[in-house]
Specification:
Length: 262
């Protein structure tokens, strides 16, 4: 019985390994290459592929002798993502970030032309308490997390469309608020290059914010994490101190959501 159990577990692990390898070959992978990458002999790989194919997880590719994942694998992944409670997933990471930096931690979700605050942790030893609250709708053009959604849009020419349809709401809140399209385009280019955004007292004098994007399995940015602090503290300690921890948190959450860095 123990021997059969061991053999069964070994076959399961090998089969899962093949699925993982095939996920890197959307157009199919030849059996010989699968054997080479997995470190298994061809007969074992062929046997495992036959089992996976009979259960609907693998199918033959257009190139003879090649195999690829079936739509069933995608269906399972989508079911997992749809059942995932995002707050349960991110809260341990955000709580650790809050303890490490001691400042206000914010987590938002993209919704149409706004960023919605869906989670917030108050500072543990920082003195600054921001006016932001859970459920708040934040404009994209003047918030750190909002600018991330502008930098990583869901559709082409989104920035121009946003700018044209929000002329009445794009206002000079402080002397640092960006209200010109060409200035925002330059800002977003820098955000994409550095993979973080800042609110440099664009909403409120004396308060600054650093935000990092969270990528999902489709390489989309639908969530963002940020940390708010006083301008005085940021200038005293430096951006790099905060950015290192925020980026790490965003990367950890991205991996939880299935993102694989290229």
């Amino acid at each position: 019985m123990e021997k059969e159990k061991l053999i069964g577990n070994q076959s399961l692990i090998r089969g899962l390994r093949l699925l993982d390898i095939l996920s890197d070959f959307p157009n199919g992978c030849p059996l010989a290459k699968l054997a080479d990458i997995s470190g298994l002999n061809k007969s074992t790989v062929h046997r495992l592929l036959q089992g996976l194919q009979s259960e609907g997880y693998v199918k033959t590719a257009s190139t003879a002798g090649s195999y690829r994942l079936s739509i069933k694998c995608l269906s399972i992944g989508q079911k997992m993502l749809s059942s995932m409670n995002i707050i349960n997933v991110v809260s341990p990471y955000l709580e650790q970030l809050n303890l490490t930096l001691g400042e206000t931690v914010n987590f938002s979700q993209r919704e149409e032309d706004k960023a919605i605050m869906i989670y917030k942790l108050e500072p543990t030893h920082g003195m600054l308490k921001t006016r932001a609250y859970i459920g708040q709708h934040m404009p994209l053009y003047c918030s750190a997390m909002g600018k991330l959604y502008l930098a990583y849009p869901r559709k082409v020419d989104y920035l121009l469309q946003y700018w044209q349809t929000h002329q009445t709401t794009i206002q000079q809140l402080t002397k640092n608020t960006i209200t010109q399209l060409d200035e925002m385009e330059a800002e977003l280019d820098a955000i994409r290059q550095n993979q973080f955004a800042m609110d440099k007292e664009e909403n409120e004098i004396g308060v600054m914010c650093i935000a990092c994007p969270i990528f999902d399995s489709f390489n989309q940015v639908n969530y963002a994490v940020s940390v708010s602090m006083s301008t005085y503290k940021l200038k005293k300690i430096g951006v790099d101190f905060f950015l290192k921890e925020i980026k790490k948190t965003a990367q950890d959450i991205s991996r939880e959501l299935g993102y694989v860095a290229g």
